[in-house]
Structure formats: structure tokens, C-alpha cells
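Issue 218. Parser rejects a valid record. Input:
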Amino acid sequence: MVLAKSRSLSCFPEDAVDAWSRGFWAQVEVVGDDACWRWKSKVIMTAGYGQVRFLDGKKLGAHRASYLITHGCLSEGKVIRHLCHNKLCVNPSHLREGSYRQNWEDEALKYLDGEAAYYHDLLQREFRRAGHTPDPDEDVWADILG
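Output the parser choked on:
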């Protein structure tokens, strides 16, 4: 498994970051605060994610670029999770930094479809019954499944 590399905007000149950010957002279809913002440029056909060149010339997922612009850095070994499950979405409010395991769990829940809410509620109840207070950012599945 290839670990995600850390990235930061702080080591680049501010004018270069501003120009890169403007160029990035020019390639996004923004349709409302709560809706998915669709990446309109290059897409990695095998994975379905948008792709952009970072300031250092290296390729970067469009969703990772959106998170980087909004938050200033990407942590090493972390992924950017799509809460909306739309690989072309770059709306920062739909993106969260997390572990590979959390991302896998997100995918598993997506495929459970209608059963997802039931099992999520069941796990939350079991977690509370065991004396824990679930945190929305906490990896509840890992504690229960080991």
C-alpha cells in the first residue's frame, strides 16, 4: 500500500498559492453550498477521481487539492474521505481527513445502502451500552470490530 504524502501550502510563495487556487476553483462547477461541487477537468479514468497538478508539478487528486486549499495541509498517511461518496466532488464541506480504514468503512456503508443507517444506529447503541460516548469523528467500527 502506498501511503499518502503530506503536503502544505506554507512552503510556497503566497502569490503562487493564490494563482494556483484560483486556477483550481475555475475548474469546479459550484451549484450551492450543500450540493456536490463537480470537478470539470482531468479525471483519472481507472479510479474516477479528478486530478490536478500541484505547485511542485506533481499530480494530486482534485479532492485532496480542495482540502489542501481549505485547510492548508494534508497529513502524511491520511486520505481525504468523501462524505457524499461522489469521487468528482470537491466541496470542502463534503471532505474529511481520515484513515484508510475509515475510508474503507465509508465504502462498505455506502454499499449497504438502506441497511447502512440501521447498522450505524445499532453500532452506536452498542457503543453507548458499553459505556462509551460516540464521537462523530471517532472510529467507532474499529473499537467494536477490533
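Fixed in the parser; the record now loads. The chain has five helices and eight strands.
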